Structure formats: C-alpha cells, structure tokens
Amino acid sequence: MSRFVVTGANGLVGRRACALLAARGHTVVGLGKGVRRAAGAFDYETLDLTHEAEVAPALGRLSPEVVLHCASMTEVDACEKAPDAAYAANVTATAAVARWTREAGAHLVHVSTDYVFDGDSGPYAEDAVPNPRGVYAMTKHMGEQAARVLAPGCAIARTAVVYGWPPVEGRLNFGAWLVKTLSAGQPVKLFEDQVVSPSFADNVAAMLVELGERRLGGTWNTCGGTVLDRVAFGRALCEVFGFDAGLVVPTRMADLKLSAPRPLKSGLLTDKAREQLSEKPLALTESLKRFHASWLAARAGEAG
C-alpha cells in the first residue's frame, strides 16, 4: 500500500479517486480549496495550489509516494475572461507540484484534456501534436509541458467531457445538467457539430488510480471509449434514462456567442488504455448504465 495525495479532492474526479484509493487500502490525503465537500474515508486538507510557496512545505509534510494532480480551472469561458487566474491554476500550480515530486522522488499523474488539440482532425491518439486554441486550452498544454520538464517519468492523463452523479456542489457537469433539465421535461440545445469523448467520472478516476499504483509514465487517453457528437450523446442518455429524446434540440456552435473557442472534431482514441490498463475505457452504453444507476441510488438515498 502507498501514500497518495490527490489534488482537486472536492472535484468530480478527485473525490472519486480519493474514495477508490482509500477503499483499496492506501493512505490518502485529499487537497482542495476551501472546506471539505467530499465525503469518504480519507483525510482532507485545505491548500490553494496557486500559492506556490505553500506547495512544497505541504507536500513535504504529507510525504506522498504518488500525487494525482486533478486540480484545475476547467470552466472554458471563465478561463478566457480571467487568463491570470487560469495561468495560476493550470500552469503555476502544476509546476509547483511537479517540481516537488521530482525532488522527492514521488510519482506524478497529471490530469489534462482533449482541448490541447485544435479539433481540426480528431479523434486524437496520444502522440498527436497539440495545437491549443483559447486560454483554457493553452494553459492546460503549458501545464502538460511543465509536468514533463519538471517531473520526467510522470504520466499525462488526458480526459474529456467528464460527467457523473452526484455532481460537484454549485456546478453541474454536462451529464448532470442534461439529467436535471430533461427530467424536468425541458428542452436542451446540444451541439451537433462538436465530436467528443464523453467520460464517466468513476471510470476516469479508476484509470488514474491504476496509473498511480503502477507508477506508469507517458501520455494516456483516460476517457470514455466512444467518440460521438453531443446530440448523439444526449439521445443515448434519453434512451437509458427513459427521457423524451424529442427534447434534444440540435444546434451548431457558431449559433452561440461563446467567449472561448472550442475544438469541433475532437475526441480521443483509447487503444493504448484498452490494451495496457486493467481498468478499460468504458463504451458509451455501459457508462450511461452506470451513470443511471448512480442517479437512481442518489434519488433513493434522498427519499429514504
């Protein structure tokens, strides 16, 4: 058993990684901004990773053998409007964590995104050349580079459109937003011209845990195993959940005035993860079945 630190422990993937690691018998400390919002049998400490001078002392005291770096500023339009904050969260914080892992001899798993690609020719394999567009994409790519330079041997784990239930307090992920809106009988406008790799958060967390446990390095696409457009995802979700697929309204990205650019023909190829990891990227139908089960379990818990 190993000592793990998971950053972004209040987030969608981070809290699941913490819970899974604890269930597997590891010593786990989750780090997050503000008060603890994630339940589970693991310790939690507050740390703002953008305060660079505080990172090394905190990690030194906790002395992890592996760091899963899930923390990030992921709201694409918010990053475009606040580039300094995006740089601090996605580059400065990553560099501080990576530098400590190298000096301490710890293993780093750094979570990144399919947005490092321009979306002109996806889906992308791990060795495709990034061409980020927009502040979020550029800072995430810079974070990857910082991790590689400062922590040679680290793992770069790219994921995409992560969804799960329950959602993070105060912020609905794509899947949770769909469920909440469609269950109320309200229509949803979804992009018919953006191709993505929707990723079930529990599956992503399990793949990150495996990368950490096995101390694997290199670049990995740790995302869902199906590439499709958002309209097709919405209709597939309706079929599994029993919602009215007629509420899914196709639209095009150009029809909306978005602050930040987004890749259109995106998505990630998962051959490497399917061949080399025990935790396989889930196909869409299985992911949605598990998503539905977690939603039903949460509803039952609320009713009880």
Automatic annotation (TrEMBL):
GO terms for biological process: dTDP-rhamnose biosynthetic process. The keyword ATP-binding does not apply. Residues 4-292 form the RmlD-like substrate binding domain. Pfam families: RmlD_sub_bind. Pathway: Carbohydrate biosynthesis; dTDP-L-rhamnose biosynthesis. It catalyses: dTDP-beta-L-rhamnose + NADP(+) = dTDP-4-dehydro-beta-L-rhamnose + NADPH + H(+). Catalyzes the reduction of dTDP-6-deoxy-L-lyxo-4-hexulose to yield dTDP-L-rhamnose. Belongs to the dTDP-4-dehydrorhamnose reductase family. This is dTDP-4-dehydrorhamnose reductase.
